[in-house]
Amino acid sequence: xxxxxxxxxxxxxxxxxxxxxxxxxxxxxxxxxxxxxxxxxxxxxxxxxxxxxxxxxxxxxxxxxxxxxxxxxxxxxxxxxxxxxxxxxxxxxxxxxxxxxxxxxxxxxxxxxxxxxxxxxxxxxxxxxxxxxxxxxxxxxxxxxxxxxxxxxxxxxxxxxxxxxxxxxxxxxxxxxxxxxxxxxxxxxxxxxxxxxxxxxxxxxxxxxxxxxxxxxxxxxxxxxxxxxxxxxxxxxxxxxxxxxxxxxxxxxxxxxxxxxxxxxxxxxxxxxxxxxxxxxxxxxxxxxxxxxxxxxxxxxxxxxxxxxxxxxxxxxxxxxxxxxxxxxxxxxxxxxxxxxxxxxxxxxxxxxxxxxxxxxxxxxxxxxxxxxxxxxxxxxxxxxxxxxxxxxxxxxxxxxxxxxxxxxxxxxxxxxxxxxxxxxxxxxxxxxxxxxx
Length: 438
Ligand SMILES: Nc1ncnc2c1ncn2[C@@H]1O[C@H](COP(=O)(O)OP(=O)(O)O)[C@@H](O)[C@H]1O
Ligand SMILES: [Mg+2]
Known about the structure:
Blueprint: H1 15-28, H2 36-57, H3 65-82, H4 101-110, H5 113-128, H6 131-136, H7 143-236, H8 241-268, E1 275-278, H9 280-294, E2 301-306, E3 313-316, H10 317-334, H11 337-341, E4 352-362, E5 365-374, H12 381-384, H13 402-412, E6 416-419, E7 428-434
């Protein structure tokens, strides 16, 4: 039987329940007063009303608590009818027949329309069952008694349908409000995420301008230092090997600084996207090649889950290469690749990267989502908020620009990047790139 899928809750005993008990007590002081069975049955119905919510909360294999509740009420009401007529009269004529509204109304509030009708028919049958002994015991039951019975039963159905309609509508409203409040919570979450993204983008823009200015100013003197060092090396190198060696150091360090400045500029330069159709699995494969090339001594097992029918995306291929290369390199480094390069032990016993690529949508925009999960130690709680900020690094020789460049490129493509893993598990980044970045 179809039951409304509302969670069964223990209801509080309220003033309406007390009023219900008072009304039952009212029946107790009305005739037949001396009939002890009637009083006991009224008491039983009252006690049952008090504990009904407990029964409703349980479920058995055979029937639900709600079905048992209606069934017990039909039983108690039928017994009450027997004890409310004089022995000489037929039970169907008991003045207490409206007590059957109790199970009928209960069914109408608990169940859907079909089950309500079935339970009402069952209650009516229980009532009509008293026709059988009346027939055998030869009581006077004339045609008008049958008519009266028919009218009463029709009233049962009428009450059941009306109450059920009202309750069903009420339930629908509650579900509508629930859905509305859930969608409000979701919108609120999206708004907070968008605000966080906007704050990050602002920070990045301010820092980008500063870095661009600084990098520009640093490059000129670096060029002069490098040129001078080369001249020194050419002039004094052959005659004074020590001077040549020192000039070499200067040159090498200047190169290193130059590379760093170039990365600043990459980060700061307003990006002009060269959009072309790009195949995302190829981007990821290239990133893995780069990482394997950088850390050939560090074997990592790669697991790929690529959904069929992936759309290609319009994106700047070179920039997207940087995105995935940075993420995969970070994963390698988190699992200990840079440690093994320095001849120490890997961080994880069986380094593994799991890549998933699937079509997805974000805020109604369709695109492709890439998940990159590693088996490393994960991102520590205190770093999670900041890892997309520039100069945040936990590595000895890290600059901390990788993820901020990644975030900037993804933002430029109107995509999204999130660290989706919880602390205490390997890091999992999710990159969403829309099919059209414009
Ligand atoms: N896969 C990862 N697992 C654990 N920590 C990570 C991972 N990726 C990034 N991180 C953390 O984020 C920091 C910033 O990364 P990134 O911006 O690429 O800079 P860098 O690699 O130079 O440190 C890293 O130093 C590391 O602490
Ligand atoms: Mg990095």
